[in-house]
Amino acid sequence: MEGCTLPANALEKVLEEVRDFVMRHGIPRKGDLVLLAVSGGVDSMVMLDAFCRLQDELGLRLHVAHLDHMLRGDASKGDAQHVAEVARSHALSCTVQCVDIGRQLGPESGGLQQVARKERYAFFHRVARQVGARWIVTGHHRDDQAETVLWRIIRGTGLKGLGGMSLVREPFLRPLLGLWRAQLEAYAAEAGLTHREDASNLRLDYTRNRIRLQILPLLQEINPRVKEALVSLSEQAARDGDCLEAWAQRVYGELASVRWGQRRLWREGFVALPGALASRVIMRAVKDVFAPALGQLDQKGMERGLALMRKARGPTRFMWPGPLMVVVEKDWVTLVPPHDALAEQSVKVGGATALGRGMYITARLLSKTPQKLDAGSKVAYVDFDRLHAPLKVRSRRSGDRFFPLGLAGSKRVKEFFIQEKIPAHARHRVPVICAGTDIVWLASLRQDHRFRVRDTTVRVLELRLRDMPW
Predict the structure, then answer these.
(1) CA–CA separation, 279 and 257 (whole Å)
(2) Residues 379, 340, 344, CA angle at the centre, nearest 5°?
(3) Cβ contact 141:43 at 8 Å
(4) Of 165, 200, 241, 343, which sits with the fewest C-beta atoms within 10 Å of its C-beta?
(5) Residues in the chain with pLDDT < 50?
(6) What DSSP state is assigned to residue 71?
(7) pLDDT tens-digit profile of 423-447?
């Protein structure tokens, strides 16, 4: 076992590791219900036993979960029965479910192990919601970490991938990640634990098994401590990655702003960033605007997008990644999500109306007319009794016209947007407040002259566009 001498008291070593994890991270907290993901293998059985021994000391409530993939016939059933029996012996509630993974395989489903992993994690999330568990604990250890890092290197990865599995990735906790498998086996022997062996772990047609059974032993001939080297690499990469992420978060806060509910970056500052930082900043913007698009963003796509943002000499638009539109202008890089128009809805008088992407409208009747009518910015004051229909909010429509406050006659909304230099990609995000077919206010731009407050006005309606930082 690389870098590890078996302790005289393996049981206490593992318990101390779990205690230390809880103290360092402050989780789980006393009173928390914790879901233990138990396969029946030695690592998860040690995890289960350790948490049972520490349950009263840490003040935790425990629930066991096991998924039978139905891939090994009676052996799979035996795993489920063993987990249920051990949970029962500890007086713990237990959820066991069967899913026929083989039936789910198809041309686009992915490999067997990939589908099984997806179903397993979906099962853990589902049970956690059902029982009200705040955290899900797994039995991953340092050998798993070494295999994970090597697998990612073989497939191709970046700094984040080199960081391997995290101790904490909400809601998952991996308190045994600092221990080698041999330490867990020593614990199991000392505690007299029984566990199940999964025969499929010896099948060489699974990539993960080939790494563990063939590739790592070959590498150990060159470096007997290769597992320890891989884990050390993951720990260093995770530290460096955390530092870069913290830096990117600060820079993102300085460069990013929101206009019309769309995320934009100050271009001059953004293009000056080094590549490692720029990629992290833009990924934060993509996550804020339309997180599903992150799944379509690989390294080549990232480099292509960043190059276009940096080199564009005039106004430029392109789709990246996937359904997102990027608009590059002189001063700003704006990310426009798909299906971004405002859905028509009623404006609640005496409350707030959410518009999505951080914007909302408040409408309230005032007891008296304000001395200063600051209309035209993010607030409009309207003669409530001149509204001939309930208020609604929507995006602009072709042919919309209104009577801009302070101007004679009507004007097409499209012409007004051009006059106010509202970019075309943002015009559908400007809230249009209407009473029937009449426009009352182009939110944050100009209200309609017909609904202005007069000396004869009795009831004043205040409309505000809120939570829209510039």
Answers:
(1) 17
(2) 60
(3) yes
(4) 343
(5) 1-6, 468-470
(6) -
(7) 888 888 899 999 999 999 999 899 9
Q: What is the fold of 10-237?
A: Rossmann fold (3.40.50)
Domains 260-336 and 345-466 share a fold: no
Q: What are phi and psi of 199, to 5 degrees?
A: -60, -25
* Alpha carbon distance 2, 225 (integer Å): 5
Question: What does the alpha-carbon distance between residue 102 and residue 19 come to, in Å, rounded to a whole number?
Answer: 39
Which residue type sits at 448? D
- Check: CB of residue 239 under 8 Å from CB of residue 166: no
Closest among 418, 415, 350 to 384, alpha carbons compared: 350
Note the maximum CA span of the chain: 93
Overall residue count recorded for the chain in this entry? 470
Give the DSSP per-residue string, 90-150. TT-EEEEEE--HHHH--TTT--HHHHHHHHHHHHHHHHHHHHT-SEEE----HHHHHHHHH
3-state secondary structure of 21: helix
DSSP sequence for 184-228:
HHHHHHHHT------GGGG-TTSHHHHIIIIIHHHHHHH-TTHHH
At 259, the amino acid letter reads R
Contact assessment for residue 351 and residue 363, using Cβ atoms and an 8 Å cutoff? yes
**Amino acid at the residue 338:** P
pLDDT confidence of residue 425: 81
pLDDT recorded at residue 107: 52
**What is the reported pLDDT for 43?**
97
- The CA distance from 46 to 36, in Å, is 11
What's the CATH number for 345-466? 3.50.40.10
- The pLDDT of residue 347 is 96
- Separation between Cα atoms, residue 164 and residue 423, nearest integer Å: 43
Phi-psi region of 382 (alpha: psi -120 to 50; beta: other; left: phi over 0): beta
Q: Is residue 162 classed as helix, strand or coil in its secondary structure?
A: helix
Tokens 């563990």 — which residue? 212
Architecture of domain 260-336: 2-Layer Sandwich (3.30)
The pair of three-digit structure tokens given for residue 268, joined into one six-digit string: 């001059």
Main-chain phi, psi angles of 422, to 5 degrees: -85, 120
Domain residue spans in the chain? 10-237, 260-336, 345-466
Q: What was the pLDDT predicted at 128? A: 97
Instruction: Return all residues near 111 (Cβ < 8 A) that are at least 6 apart.
Output: none
pLDDT tens digits along 1-23:
444 444 558 999 999 999 999 99
Closest CA relative to residue 466, chosen from 180, 258, 323, 277: 258
Q: What confidence score (pLDDT) does residue 374 get? A: 63
Residue ranges of E strands in 217-321: 256-259, 262-266, 316-319
Q: Look at residue 316 and give its three-state secondary structure.
A: strand
